[in-house]
Amino acid sequence: MSNYHIKHLEEYYQVYRKSVREPENFWEEVAEEHFMWQRKWDNVLSWDFTKPEVKWFEGAQLNITENCIDRHLATRGDKTAILFEPNDPKEAAEHITYKQLYERVNQFANVLKEQGIKKGDRVCIYLPMIPELAISVLACARIGAIHSVVFAGFSSTALSTRINDSDCKMVITSDGSYRGAKTIDLKGIVDEALNDCTCVETVLVAKRINSDINMKSGRDKWLQPLLDHASSDCEAELMDAEDPLFILYTSGSTGQPKGMVHTTAGYMVYTAYTFKNAFQYKENDVYWCTADIGWITGHSYIVYGPLANGATTVMFEGVPSYPDFGRFWEIVEKHKVNQFYTAPTAIRALAKQGLELVEKYDLSTLKVLGSVGEPINEEAWHWYNDNVGKKKSPIVDTWWQTETGGVMITPIPFVTPTKPTYATLPFIGIQPALMDENGKELKGNQVDGRLCVKFPWPSMARTIWGNHQRYKDTYFSAYENMYFTGDGALRDEVGYYRITGRVDDVIIVSGHNLGTAPIEDAINEHPAVAESAIVGFPHDVKGNALYGYVILKDVGETRDHANLRNEINQIITEHIGPIAKLDKIQFTQGLPKTRSGKIMRRILRKIAQGDTSNLGDTSTLLNPEVVQDIMDNVL
Ligand code: PRX
């Protein structure tokens, strides 16, 4: 069907118009012709943003793994599904064919069943980027268990919070992980986390680094012997279209992380369709997304989207700097990668290295370059375009979120003319709106506002696990009948969108969403700390870095500030993970507050960014005098 694969700009506009005028017909056609259903839907879409409630393909029954694996067996059985590139370049890459993936997923699914996991149970996956990660995700989906993958860089406290929030019965982990020259004791982190979790009955442990670890009898089980005895056939569980497929946590500006719930049919249809178009994937291409499966990018565009299209998807265990900063390019050459998808922070880090590391490798197979996770600045865009794409591979700057499930605003390569720093046009079926601060929609072009979406799309998150009210408050209460993204954006004279950044208290550091509140809570646990406030400031590699203003309890505190700074970062590492460490910590006597006691972050942000020319009227503050003091002592 022509609609499935957009090939030129006229066609984009034509298909886009159809997707907006007749969304139900449009998505029905896509769903009908490209997927395997055990039962078709009774109703394509029902929705009500005031509740909010959204249902796609109601009445349909399916299993996403039949779509990602089984239906490819006849024609692509011997094709590589997952191409695993280990941390150490001397270790051989592993090509897992669709046939082998079928067997391994089914064996794993049988192990899960044998261990008492049933449809609807939550399973926490805390694994490095090894094949078992993708396989365990698919094994959960095979039997209808809800996976909750936690990025293996999170600390034990962050892990236990997530395990408890969704009441996981099982944790799947490994004896450890490789990260460049280092090894990490993942199982030790799990053990610590489980001191605070009573819901977990079983821990399955994959062997990766062959370390000598502690196995708690009755709870911990080595994975391999169980797999060795499991059958490689496991009937796929019949899932309703709106049955939850997974939970994935994302930071909020306040409170606990939010467990975004994604459901089965709509998520499958949309991630598959966007993958095909945003990367122009062709049958024998090798596609590589450098994200971790612990984030939404990995869920949608390493696992589900590519496999639903029968693609070859590369999974890389390591880091861009090991053994040297040429590793990404070495892998592109080695596996003849055609589509390469990464984050601006990685591009900026690599751009700082000598060009000879790029030029050493043959990158001529590259056709499409992707960017995701944060705004890509002009310099990084040009470096990527000139040196990696050699000005012939379009850059697809894909804007989306954990909550949206799939790409929302993006150029379609070879179709949409690109423009540096612009995510360009809404994807098929997506109806963005820019709103002013009074809740009025800004019509026409050359406007700047808050980015919302007016109409449901198939892969939107349906709720926050265990807290539907918070889902409503966070996303559907700022503007009437709209999904609010939390981002600001502008629309240029031709209707292209440029994302300008978060408008709430989420800060994106190296492409990771960090809420200020949980970090402040962690800092405030330090016995010497009375109060703290975190803001972001520009950083040439990370995009943003964190700046902390900290009030100490005892004004006469004589302890060495350098030590205190280390201790504060240590607490943050324990509570959240090293990604949330502060780059700068300023000790201060006070924080600027409104008369109602709210911290004026706008002022703190400006000071941290070194832009004090226009702080606005500070005279209405409760304590205007602290502003000058903070400015005088800025780091
Ligand atoms: O602020 C936007 C930014 O990342 C946020 C979503 O983060 P997360 O849920 O972790 O998902 C990241 C991967 C999809 C957004 O609200 N963001 C993501 N992509 C872009 C972006 N900002 C600008 N340009 C992008 N391409």
UniProtKB/TrEMBL annotation:
Residues 12-68 form the Acetyl-coenzyme A synthetase N-terminal domain. One of its GO terms (biological process) is acetyl-CoA biosynthetic process from acetate. One of its GO terms (molecular function) is ATP binding. CDD domains: ACS (cd05966). Gene3D superfamilies: 3.30.300.30, N-terminal domain of ligase-like. It comes from the Bacteria. Keywords: Acetylation, ATP-binding, Ligase, Nucleotide-binding. The keyword Chaperone does not apply. InterPro entries: Ac_CoA_lig, ACAS_N, AMP-bd_C, AMP-bd_C_sf, AMP-binding_CS, AMP-dep_synth/lig_dom, ANL_N_sf. It is an enzyme of class 6 (ligase). Residues 519-598 form the AMP-binding enzyme C-terminal domain. Residues 70-462 form the AMP-dependent synthetase/ligase domain. Its EC number is 6.2.1.1. PROSITE patterns: AMP_BINDING. Belongs to the ATP-dependent AMP-binding enzyme family. PANTHER family: ACETYL-COENZYME A SYNTHETASE, ACETYL-COENZYME A SYNTHETASE 1. This is Acetate--CoA ligase.
